[in-house]
Amino acid sequence: MTPLLLLQLPHVVTREIMNQFELKERFLLSLCSPRAFRFVRYNQRRSEKWKLCLKYEDKKWIVCGGQLTGKRIVSMRNYANHQKKLEPIRIGSREGVIYPTSKGFEVVIGKNERTAFKLLVDYMWFLFYKLPTVIHTSPGNLWMVRMYRSPLDQIHIHSTNHPLNWEEIKKAFEGCQATVLRLDAEPEGFPEPVDFGSIKGIFVERRKILFTMELISLARSCQVIHATTVQLMDLNLFIKEWMQGNMKHNGRVFKIKPGMRIIRRRDGKVLVVELTERRLVVTVI
């Protein structure tokens, strides 16, 4: 069979062919040579509607493309599986190896996972013209949130055996902008309120309790909180803190239902609290 000289085809033809490739296939093709990288970069539609998603899962750092979860493009470890056939590659200025697994391809480009993963995501950014907008991570790996200071669509902090550390949250979320934060991990304690940045909606729905100082911290950073039921003492302390003017966030238009607890502050702002058997919704208007 005569091989198809892909890089030598006319530009119109190559663009149509490239748009039939999956993101994983485009990434693998780009690793073949500098010319192949340029070929992929300049022969794809920049207007394609998909999100670049970063994950930490099973001791791997994963890059996906799609919507909120997406399909895996490639994963990264900080050590190689020498039982696999290793192929040499270059990611940016760093040499590494790539090998196949049952779930896709894995790369190793250094032992320092933060530096290596940032290098890999920078490569994806330059290749696909996409910054990551969805982050799935867990306690101990919140540094993924601050890799880029661009606005995020969603941050999901999954629950593990390790609790959320107050110092780690403070460092990761400083200046953060996100549409949604899903918080499943349990905190080890909040000695004082911490700034979560600017977040439109926070969901805490897979935990049994939301602590007072944590609730106050979240309310300083977001417009709407959806949470599991909290102790009445916690809710009262939260309302007291809000009445003192410590909640600096702005609200949004919200439909007030019969039976909701409504409190008006002297500056005219209204706090709406809906507490049911299943969840608490706190909104500032």
From TrEMBL:
Domain F-box: 3-53
First and last residue of the signal peptide: none
InterPro entries assigned to the protein according to its UniProt record, in alphabetical order: F-box_dom
Pfam families (UniProt xref): F-box
PROSITE patterns xref list: FBOX
PANTHER family: F-BOX ASSOCIATED DOMAIN-CONTAINING PROTEIN-RELATED, F-BOX-CONTAINING HYPOTHETICAL PROTEIN C.ELEGANS
Name of the protein this chain belongs to: F-box domain-containing protein
